[in-house]
Automatic annotation (TrEMBL):
This protein's name: 6,7-dimethyl-8-ribityllumazine synthase
Cross-referenced Gene3D superfamilies: Lumazine/riboflavin synthase
InterPro entries linked to this entry: LS, LS/RS, LS/RS_sf
Keywords (A to Z) from UniProt: Riboflavin biosynthesis, Transferase
Sequence similarity: Belongs to the DMRL synthase family.
GO terms for biological process, alphabetical: riboflavin biosynthetic process
Stored HAMAP family: Lumazine_synth
Gene Ontology molecular function terms on file: 6,7-dimethyl-8-ribityllumazine synthase activity
Listed SUPFAM superfamilies: Lumazine synthase (SSF52121)
PANTHER family for this protein: 6,7-DIMETHYL-8-RIBITYLLUMAZINE SYNTHASE, 6,7-DIMETHYL-8-RIBITYLLUMAZINE SYNTHASE DMRL SYNTHASE LUMAZINE SYNTHASE
Pathway recorded for this protein: Cofactor biosynthesis; riboflavin biosynthesis; riboflavin from 2-hydroxy-3-oxobutyl phosphate and 5-amino-6-(D-ribitylamino)uracil: step 1/2
Length: 153
């Protein structure tokens, strides 16, 4: 019979670090509050949450890499890149994703991707607590599950 190994959502005693972009703060603050609410609801103590703010999504990977060397069980990266009239969106969104993925592969802890990449503000607000839920909260749940899974592996 196959053996299944899964994480759970018991976050008691976990220490979680955030790297949050200040650019599009009207979106990222909702992502952050949704994520923190979810962590606390599942047992993380407020004192075990550390939030690092960076100027924009492009700067998230470096801060996440630095944060990995601290005593966190997981890092949650939050940002919002909204398409404009120039190709800048593609460069920032692509490099933020690539950089966070690179940090995640090198880290010995889960590094979660909670950066919205949307075509417009409406799509971003819908995903930051609006009609499409809160992607920050979803990233927090994924972080808890991955931490508990990694402890079983």
């Amino acid at each position: 019979m196959a053996k299944f190994i899964e994480g759970d959502l018991n976050a008691s005693g976990l220490k979680i670090g955030f790297v949050v972009s200040r650019f599009n703060v009207f979106i990222t603050e909702h992502l952050l509050s949704g994520a923190i609410d979810e962590l606390v609801k599942h047992g993380v103590d407020d004192n075990d949450i550390e939030v690092i703010r960076v100027p924009g999504a492009f700067e998230i990977p470096l801060a996440a890499k630095k944060l990995c060397s601290r005593k966190n069980d997981a890092i949650i990266c939050l940002g919002a890149v909204i398409r404009g009239e120039t190709p800048h969106f593609e460069y920032v969104a692509s490099e933020a994703a690539r950089g966070i993925a690179s940090v995640a592969r090198a880290a010995d802890i889960p590094v979660m991707f909670g950066v919205l990449t949307t075509d417009n503000v409406t799509q971003a607000t819908d995903r930051a607590g609006g009609k499409c839920g809160n992607k920050g909260a979803e990233a927090a749940l994924a972080a808890i599950e991955m931490v508990t899974l990694c402890k079983k592996l």
